[in-house]
């Protein structure tokens, strides 16, 4: 069986691995060191108790086998008595009683919630907010130039109340803009950002037209009078750029290379290992540890799914593209061309985890 045959069965492995994660990841994968230590100590204690008690109890039961026989006889008679039609009907009626069923489900739910609260650490979602500021300019027909009006949190289009009332709250510079009450700016820089998606979300298609090359928006009409540009202040874009440029091969995945938490991430990391990616040139980022990174990388690449592979700053694609390129041989050629593979004398090495997170300092 060659590599191509192995990849043909990879979907089955992904399906089985997803079922395995769904059933056991919440209970058998401990992210906290204290819980892992507690479980390890408990297993050691059980082993010690077995080693100390079993050698004593087994010889006693062997030498006094009548105890085992009496226990088996009692169990058989209890089963026979329980199967009597009168007792059996009462027992089944009690088992299928709605109140008993509800009470048992409630108890099981409390036990499960308690175990989950002890074993699974809830992700803390950072209270992040995006600030949008618009730079406004007005056309001066006499001078035939655009005259700056200032910076405002209102896009001041012809369909807004502020434009109709000619009341504009503005600042003369970006430095004068303060963060919302209770917030601080995570970085001092502002990012120039005009996208068609922003215009559609604010239902401005009929009143403005975007010049995506210059990052300006103009009033629709024969003689536009107001132009806007939009700035956003956010840290995630710079953090992702730094992460992508930190290593030649960068994979944004669910989980880590040692413990992928989705079948597609597992298939991608296995494929990179089979291709012989140099561990010293590889970095993996777990998007499940950072909800902001998980959403930001999708917007950054305009790709809706995880995992995502970057090579020397270039977006390659997701799991399907990586598997397709590997099957056709394009991936090996591309990685070799980019200098991301293990040198010939070191081909015995495997891809390892790069436990790194985006640098946000």
TrEMBL record:
Residues 1-219 form the TECPR1-like DysF domain. Residues 342-361 are annotated as: Disordered. PROSITE patterns: GLUTAREDOXIN_2. One of its GO terms (molecular function) is disulfide oxidoreductase activity. It holds the Pfam family Pex24p. The chain crosses the membrane at residues 37-58, 64-83. InterPro entries: Glutaredoxin (IPR002109), GRX_PICOT-like (IPR033658), Monothiol_GRX-rel (IPR004480), TECPR1-like_DysF (IPR010482), Thioredoxin-like_sf (IPR036249). GO terms for biological process: [2Fe-2S] cluster assembly; peroxisome organization. GO terms for cellular component: mitochondrial matrix; peroxisomal membrane. It comes from the Eukaryota. Keywords: 2Fe-2S, Iron, Iron-sulfur, Membrane, Metal-binding, Redox-active center, Transmembrane, Transmembrane helix. Residues 249-316 form the Glutaredoxin domain. This is Monothiol glutaredoxin-5, mitochondrial. It comes from Candida oxycetoniae.
């Amino acid at each position: 069986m060659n590599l191509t045959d192995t990849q043909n069965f990879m979907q089955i492995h992904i399906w089985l691995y997803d079922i395995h994660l769904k059933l056991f990841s919440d209970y058998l994968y401990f992210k906290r060191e204290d819980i892992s230590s507690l479980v390890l100590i408990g297993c050691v204690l059980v082993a010690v108790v077995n080693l100390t008690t079993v050698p004593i109890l087994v010889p006693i039961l062997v030498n006094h086998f009548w105890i085992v026989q009496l226990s088996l006889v009692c169990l058989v008679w209890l089963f026979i008595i329980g199967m009597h039609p009168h007792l059996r009907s009462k027992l089944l009626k009690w088992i299928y009683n709605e109140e008993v069923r509800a009470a048992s489900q409630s108890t099981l739910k409390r036990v499960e919630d308690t175990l989950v609260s002890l074993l699974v650490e809830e992700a803390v979602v950072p209270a992040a907010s995006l600030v949008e500021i618009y730079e406004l300019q007005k056309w001066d027909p006499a001078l035939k130039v655009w005259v700056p009006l200032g910076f405002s949190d209102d896009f001041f289009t012809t369909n807004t109340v502020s434009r109709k009332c000619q009341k504009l709250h503005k600042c003369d510079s970006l430095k004068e803009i303060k963060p919302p009450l209770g917030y601080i700016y995570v970085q001092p820089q502002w990012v120039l950002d005009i996208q068609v998606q922003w215009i559609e979300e604010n239902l401005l298609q009929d009143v403005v037209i975007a010049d995506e090359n210059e990052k300006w928006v103009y009033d629709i009409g024969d003689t536009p009078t107001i132009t806007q540009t939009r700035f956003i202040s956010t840290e995630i874009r710079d953090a992702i750029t730094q992460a992508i440029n930190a290593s030649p091969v960068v994979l944004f995945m669910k989980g880590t290379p040692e413990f992928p938490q989705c079948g597609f991430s597992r298939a991608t990391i296995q494929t990179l290992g089979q291709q012989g990616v140099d561990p010293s040139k590889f970095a993996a980022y777990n998007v499940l540890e950072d909800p902001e990174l998980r959403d930001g990388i999708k917007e950054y690449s305009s790709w809706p799914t995880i995992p995502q592979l970057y090579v020397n700053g270039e977006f390659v694609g997701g799991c399907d593209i990586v598997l397709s390129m590997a099957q056709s041989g394009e991936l090996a050629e591309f990685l070799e061309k980019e200098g991301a593979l293990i040198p010939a004398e070191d081909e015995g090495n495997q891809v390892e985890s790069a436990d790194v997170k985006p640098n946000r300092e």
